[in-house]
Amino acid sequence: MARCDVQGHYLSEPAAFDVDYCRKLEDYLRSSVPEDDFEGPTISASRFELVAIEYTGRRIDHWTDQVRRMLGYASRSQNWDSQQWSKHQRAINVWTNLTKLLHQNNIETAQFRQEIVQRAHDCIISAEVYELLQMTFEAKVGSKIWNALKFLARPIMDCRMLRCIAGKHTQFRNVRIHLVPLKQMVALRPEYQIDICSAWAQLTPISPQASEMRMIAQFTQQFKRNCASSHAMHAEMQLFMHHGDNVALCPSLNYFGCSKKACLLCEGFLRSLPNPIATRGRHGVCYPAWGAPYPRVAGAEVALKQLENMLVCQIKTHFENLVLGTRKHLAIPIAQSTIVSDFSTLSIQSQLQREQMVESVKEAERARRSERLIL
Question: What Pfam families does the record point to (predicted)?
Answer without folding.
Answer: OTT_1508_deam
